[in-house]
What does this fold into?
Amino acid sequence: MGLGCCKVTTSKMQNKVAKDLSRHTGLTVIELKSYYNDFMKDYPRGHISKQQFREVYEKFVPNANRTQERVEKVFKRFDQNNDGTIDFREFMFALSALSSGTLEQKLSLAFYLYDENGDGVLSFEEVLQIVEVMYTMDDSPRDKDGLPAAEVFARRLFNELDVDKNGIITLGEFTSVGCKDSTIANLLLANVDQRD
It folds into this structure.
């Protein structure tokens, strides 16, 4: 539940919420407030169901493999608080992650999506979860026997990202390493940007 997600369901978007989202999505406060007004018109309950998400996903990712399983996995990834719906904050993160942006912005969004408990850092367990999802979402027919076990691969990735070797990965470490190493960036973004 990255960024201490709370439901944004009031009729007007608060400036503090808008500024926070602006910092993480690259959109201006004015753009976000406009999107929020549109969101509330389309989804007056303040959230999107799985079926509604599928319809939106198909519009924004028109060439994607749209199997029910794929949409389900993407939905779960963006439903940060696991309540079975996507609120405006979660929706904006989803749209930002699925749209173009700088590498640093995409990595920043990925970090907050991966930060399951919202504590602002990634633990080894959270990195292991990234790798496990990456392994299960790999649709290619190639031989997976050549890959190391998920835990071994996660430990290597964690060690690369934990620059100061203090046992946690900060946003700064995550984006810095990702921006310097395209292979790592591609791995970190594989679970976020699934365009086919």
In short: The longest strand covers residues 47-48. The longest helix spans residues 29-42. The mean pLDDT is 78.
